[in-house]
Every structure is written in structure tokens, then in C-alpha cells.
């Protein structure tokens, strides 16, 4: 009988000691990105909702990112923060009670692959979603910039980048004033070009093609206009001072090491 009383007493004390833990807010179970769509934040969701990962849309076009957190109790409310490539792009101004989702609008600034994550906090506990990758499609002329001034007789580097909706870039074609001047099939895509002195303005264009040989769409081309100007002073030149062209060079003696 004494042994049984000790058992019940120990069980009671254990439950009593754990009681405060049951009354505390438990950790957030999870938070996940539920949709990434090329549409406004408050537009109706399509049915069925497509998986958020590996979605794509044109660069410079706003997308709506939605996320939903799940807590251990229905009374939990969350504050959401949205990140792209580790940089915060937005946060909810007020707590969001479940089952409501949080949403933010963001515009990809240029073509490329972006990793989106969301964190949710109940004020004590914080959870972070798995990353979702979004492809902003299109073609971008990185250099030269529009309005670049080029001294007569000088060369410049044409550089571009592109992102297709799927697959990879097979090649990039470079044009000047509508004429093909070169092709590059490996990143970074670039070409050295010496513009003619006349006319004084030239239009530089790049066109990207995917692994199926199709031009990247939409925004499969990017252009910029450059202006030729008279150089200020004398253009720099370089020469090899030594050795002189055609100079004989002695072959050094070689002695085998027999040790």
C-alpha cells in the first residue's frame, strides 16, 4: 500500500510540475508559401492553385506572394516578413489571425532566378518557410547602357544575360544597327565591338535563344543606343618594348642533374 501511495504521489507531483507548460504558447508548427502568381495581391486565386515552386513570369512584372502559418492553437496570430535572396521585401503591418493568409506584391527588377522565403512569428516563436524559386524571364542588355558615349575608334564590350521559363540559354546573338555582328554560346554572354565612326549613333541589340532554339519570350530582346564622339586628347596606345619583333632569342643551356 505504501508503494502505491508513493507512485500516485510522484505522478501527481510530475503533472503539477508540468502544468505551467501546458498553459504557455507553444511553438509555431510551420509556415509555408502557398502561391507565387503574376497578378495583384487581391486578385482571386485560380482553382486549382498551382504549386508555388519553379513558377515563372516576365521580369519587371509584379507578382503576388502569399503565405500561411499554422500554430498550435486557433488563437495564434502571426506577423509575416517576406524575403527575396535574403533581403526583406515587405512585412505585415498588423498581426494576421488564422486561417487568413498574408500577401505582398513584389516586382523582379531584372531577369534571373530568385529564392523567396517567409518568416512568421507569434511574438515569442518564429518559423521560416522552405525557399521557393521563381524565374523572372526575359533578356537584359547589361552593357553598354543607353546613351553611352564612345570615342571614335574605341571598342566596347557588349554584355547580356537572359532567363527562359524552362531549360537554359543556348546562345545569344549580338546586333548593331540591325546587322548580326556575333554570337556567344557560353555565359557570361559578351562580345567586343568597334563601332564605325559614322553614323554617329548606333543601336546595339541582343537576342537570346533557349535550348530548343526558340527566342526567349516574352522580352526576348534588349536594346540600347550609343553615340560616337570625338576623343578628348590622344587615344592611349600600347606597344611591346621588349623583345623587338623578330629578335633572336638564345636557348638556355640545360645541364642534366646526374646526382
Which short descriptors sum up this protein?
259 residues; mainly beta; five-stranded mixed β-sheet; 8% helix; elongated
Q: Could you walk me through the main structural features you see in this protein, from its secondary elements to its overall organization?
A:
This protein is mainly beta and 259 residues long. The protein contains one helix and 16 strands. The protein has one helix at 2-23, and strands spanning 30-37, 55-58, 63-70, 79-84, 87-91, 102-106, 112-121, 126-128, 132-143, 149-151, 156-163, 169-176, 179-184, 189-193, 201-210, 221-229. A hairpin with a 2-residue loop joins β12 and β13 (179-184).
Quick overview of this protein structure:
With 259 residues, the protein is mainly beta. It has one helix at residues 2-23; strands at residues 30-37, 55-58, 63-70, 79-84, 87-91, 102-106, 112-121, 126-128, 132-143, 149-151, 156-163, 169-176, 179-184, 189-193, 201-210, 221-229.
Secondary-structure map:
Blueprint: H1 2-23, E1 30-37, E2 55-58, E3 63-70, E4 79-84, E5 87-91, E6 102-106, E7 112-121, E8 126-128, E9 132-143, E10 149-151, E11 156-163, E12 169-176, E13 179-184, E14 189-193, E15 201-210, E16 221-229
Parallel strand pairs: 2-9, 10-16
Antiparallel strand pairs: 1-3, 3-6, 4-5, 4-7, 7-8, 7-9, 9-11, 11-14, 12-13, 12-15, 15-16
Amino acid at each position: 500500500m505504501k508503494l502505491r501511495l508513493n507512485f500516485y504521489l510522484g505522478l501527481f507531483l510530475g503533472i503539477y510540475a508540468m502544468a505551467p507548460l501546458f498553459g504557455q504558447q507553444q511553438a509555431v508548427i510551420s509556415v509555408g508559401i502557398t502561391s507565387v502568381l503574376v497578378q495583384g495581391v487581391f486578385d482571386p486565386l485560380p482553382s486549382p492553385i498551382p504549386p508555388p515552386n519553379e513558377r515563372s513570369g516576365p521580369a519587371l512584372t509584379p507578382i503576388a506572394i502569399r503565405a500561411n502559418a499554422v500554430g498550435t492553437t486557433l488563437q495564434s496570430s502571426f506577423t509575416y516578413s517576406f524575403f527575396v535572396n535574403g533581403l526583406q521585401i515587405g512585412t505585415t503591418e498588423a498581426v494576421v489571425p488564422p486561417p487568413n493568409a498574408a500577401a505582398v506584391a513584389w516586382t523582379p527588377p531584372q531577369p534571373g532566378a530568385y529564392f523567396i522565403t517567409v518568416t512568421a512569428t507569434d511574438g515569442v516563436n518564429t518559423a521560416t518557410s522552405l525557399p521557393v524559386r521563381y524565374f523572372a524571364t526575359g533578356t537584359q542588355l547589361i552593357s553598354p547602357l543607353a546613351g553611352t558615349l564612345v570615342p571614335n575608334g574605341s571598342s566596347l564590350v557588349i554584355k547580356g544575360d537572359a532567363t527562359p521559363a524552362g531549360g537554359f540559354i543556348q546562345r545569344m546573338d549580338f546586333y548593331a544597327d540591325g546587322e548580326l555582328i556575333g554570337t556567344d554560346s557560353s555565359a557570361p554572354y559578351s562580345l567586343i565591338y568597334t563601332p564605325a565612326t559614322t553614323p554617329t549613333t548606333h543601336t546595339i541589340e541582343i537576342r537570346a535563344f533557349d535550348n530548343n532554339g526558340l527566342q526567349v519570350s516574352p522580352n526576348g530582346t534588349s536594346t540600347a543606343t550609343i553615340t560616337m564622339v570625338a576623343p578628348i586628347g590622344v587615344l592611349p596606345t600600347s606597344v611591346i618594348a621588349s623583345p623587338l619583333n623578330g629578335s633572336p632569342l638564345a636557348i638556355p643551356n640545360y645541364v642534366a642533374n646526374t646526382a
